[in-house]
Amino acid sequence: MITQLFKIRSCKLPLSPETINAGRYKVCLDYHIKKCDAPCVGYQSQEAYSITVQQVTKLLKGKIEELIKDFKIGMNTAAQELQFEKAADYRDKLAKLQAFSEKQKIVSDDETDRDIVAFALEGKEASCSILNIRSGKLIGKKEFQIQNSSQESLEEITAAFIKQFYIDFIDIPGEIVTEVEPAENDEIVELLKFRSGKKIKITTPKRGDLKSLLDMSKENAALQLRELQLQKVKKRETFPILWQHFKEIFTLKNCPGILNVLIFQTCKALTLLQVWLCLLTESQKRASTGNLQSKL
């Protein structure tokens, strides 16, 4: 949605008036495909780009109605100044934003910004699901795979995840809803308060609408964990088929040690094995052709 509505640079160039005036940078592909207005070379002013960043921040914070008002003002202003292309651009953005807003589900009567954080644990594997609620609307969700090699408790995992996830997060909501009170709860609340500059509370509802949302988030996490486990099973089931094909090509009885390392050391092993098989099959064909030509 962000890239559909806004022209935000994807580079991390250290821009300053000095570097721009010195002509240190050149426009990239994003400018030519109209994904960026090239502030790096001065085609877009710092003030104009700052307004775009502020609008992106509003979208991330779920302030859709404010953004719709901004777009309407921009469209009317451009039309009055006879900048019809600019007005049409605002019109198209406004239509996309309104369609996006209509798809958002109202899940709360109050307008408190909150995240619903839930986990699914099984052995050394875990997954996390976050529902983002802004102004009473469900604006998005995030899912994460977590390695729980030391098999920590739910309280410890919740604490570690919140500290790691929200330390660099732009939009920290006023309330974070969790299944259990995280370990070091008071310290985490103070850290989030310092990071966001506002009061933050962590709640663990036992009933009501928030408990229903928490159950929904937990179900999402469980489904994600199940999907990850199924993918691992499929990979294990695929290996014997590939190995059988490998044996038929090279008439091998035992699996070479280097092949074992290739398969089990990396998550991309099966893809690499398939590529390797193709290359070796082609190599074998060429060797057979060479032997035949030598005999002739």
Q: N-to-C terminal Cα separation, in Å?
A: 65 Å
In the CATH hierarchy, the architecture of the largest domain is: 2-Layer Sandwich
**Count of structural domains:** 3
Looking at the structure, the CATH topology of the largest domain is Nucleotidyltransferase, domain 5
**Structural class based on helices, strands and sheet pairing:** alpha/beta
The helix content is: 55-70%
Mean pLDDT: 79
Major beta sheet, strand line-up: 1-4-3-2-5-6
Number of helical segments?
A: 11
Instruction: Assess the beta-strand content as a share of residues.
Output: 5-15%
**Unreliable sequence segments:** 257-270, 288-296
In CATH terms, the superfamily of the largest domain is Ribonuclease H-like superfamily/Ribonuclease H
Overview of the molecule:
The protein is an alpha/beta fold and 296 residues long. It has 3 domains: 2-104, no CATH class; 114-227, Nucleotidyltransferase, domain 5; 232-295. It has helices at 2-5, 17-21, 29-32, 46-60, 64-80, 84-103, 154-166, 185-196, 209-250, 257-264, 269-295, and strands at 105-106, 114-122, 125-134, 137-147, 175-178, 201-203. It has a 6-stranded mixed β-sheet. Strand 2 (114-122) and strand 3 (125-134) form a beta hairpin. Helix 10 runs antiparallel to helix 11 (269-295). Mean pLDDT is 79; it is low at 257-270 and 288-296.
